[in-house]
Design brief:
CATH superfamily of the largest domain: NAD(P)-binding Rossmann-like Domain
CATH topology of the largest domain: Rossmann fold
GO molecular function: glyoxylate reductase (NADPH) activity; hydroxypyruvate reductase [NAD(P)H] activity; NAD binding
Largest sheet: 7 strands, parallel
CATH class of the largest domain: Alpha Beta
Structural class: alpha/beta
Number of strands: 12
Protein name: Gluconate 2-dehydrogenase
Shape: globular
Helix content: 25-40%
Strand order of the largest sheet: 8-7-6-9-10-11-12
Strand content: 5-15%
Family: Belongs to the D-isomer specific 2-hydroxyacid dehydrogenase family.
GO cellular component, one term: cytosol
Number of domains: 2
Number of helices: 12
Radius of gyration: 22 Å
Bound molecules: 2-keto-D-gluconic acid
CATH architecture of the largest domain: 3-Layer(aba) Sandwich
Order of helices and strands: EHEHEHEHEHHEHEHEHEHEHEEH
InterPro entries: D-isomer_2-hydroxyacid_DH, D-isomer_2_OHA_DH_cat_dom, D-isomer_DH_CS, D-isomer_DH_NAD-bd, NAD(P)-bd_dom_sf
Length: about 325
């Protein structure tokens, strides 16, 4: 008997077909009654596939058959891990395939904020370029500056490599553990959190969201940064206290910010929109055709292995055994 899979995100027709080969597949219809679809699909589902929706005790209590959730993301802050463990539900994710793409985007945001790309683009298109530019249009150098990475994991290291080898930047990092191999490779210097905030010209956030990292950057931390510093967030919105950030940008406490993520997504209205020194992207760290395809492939593979008796390539809670 085929097992039941509920897909709660968009999936290409090819991937739907591949899934149907092995499973009874139900696709969430975003135009329909969302709650009703979850209510009928969850009690039957052996597997869930998708991204962008929280799952914990409240959502899964009636999902009595559930064996695996395959998230199409590297981050898993949407999932109540303790509850999944208690229930013996395996969670799989999609690291590695998005590392370089997300690092590209992190560096793009850094450059765009430093050289004021969206702001100047809008300025030119509005017809304001009537004489050679002056200091009012000047940006900040990137090359040779100090890059502070909070969260020197795979993506953080890939951003640091771009800075070190592409732009001759000095790399600082802070965190719970030292990374001797990266110190060697990048000449990265391990330092205290406050020291990094005070020294870096660019502070780049790449930490996973957890109880420890929620509002890691708030009023106190922004006050420690240089007035010329630029903050880049490609991690998760709640890592930054957004109200404090707005204040810091309005007051010129820091120069600019490049943001891909927000406390509440999608971001539909925000005081950030009124600030020319903020670059706002719609959570597109991994959003290229190639990488989203690779993430979907990997998530499918994880799901198939979990439900058909193999070992998924990326298990968040490997202590839970596939049934
Ligand atoms: C997700 C991400 O695909 O992988 C992650 O953790 O943040 C993105 O790559 C995104 O959350 C989809 O909405």
């Amino acid at each position: 008997m085929k097992k039941n899979v509920f897909v709660f995100s968009r999936l290409s027709p090819e991937h739907q077909q591949r899934l149907r080969h092995n499973f009874n597949v139900t696709l969430l219809d975003p135009a329909g009654d969302i709650d009703a679809q979850y209510a009928s699909a969850l009690p039957e589902a052996h597997g869930l596939l998708g991204v962008g929706r929280p799952f914990g005790r409240a959502q899964l209590e009636r999902a009595g058959r559930l064996e695996v959730i395959s998230t199409i993301s590297v981050g898993y802050d949407n999932y109540e891990l303790a509850y999944l463990n208690e229930r013996g539900i395996l969670l799989t994710n999609t690291p590695d395939v998005l590392t370089e793409t997300t690092a590209d985007l992190g560096f793009t945001l850094l450059m765009a904020a430093a050289r004021r790309v969206p702001e100047l683009d809008a300025w030119v298109k509005a017809g304001h370029w009537q004489a050679p530019v002056g200091p009012a249009q000047f940006g900040s150098d990137v090359h040779g500056k100090t890059l502070g990475i909070l969260g020197l994991g795979n993506i953080g290291a890939a951003i640091a490599r771009r800075g070190r080898f592409g732009f001759n930047m000095e790399v600082l990092y802070s965190g719970n553990s030292r990374k001797p191999a990266l110190e060697q490779e990048l000449g990265a210097r391990y330092c205290g959190f406050d020291e990094l905030l005070g020294e870096a010209d660019f502070v780049v956030l790449v930490v996973p969201l957890s109880a420890q990292t929620r509002h890691l950057i708030g009023r106190r931390e922004l006050a420690l940064m240089k007035p010329s510093a630029i903050l880049v967030n490609v991690a998760r919105g709640p890592v930054v206290d957004e109200a404090a950030l707005v204040e810091a940008l309005q007051n010129g406490q820091i120069r600019a910010a490049g943001l891909d993520v927000y406390e509440k997504e999608p971001l539909r209205e925000s005081p950030l929109f009124a600030l020319p020194n903020v670059v706002t992207l719609p959570h597109v760290g991994s959003a290229t055709h190639e990488t989203r395809q690779a993430m979907a492939e990997l998530a499918l593979d994880n799901l198939e292995r979990a439900l058909l008796g193999g070992t998924p390539r990326h298990r968040v809670n490997p202590q839970v055994r596939a049934r």
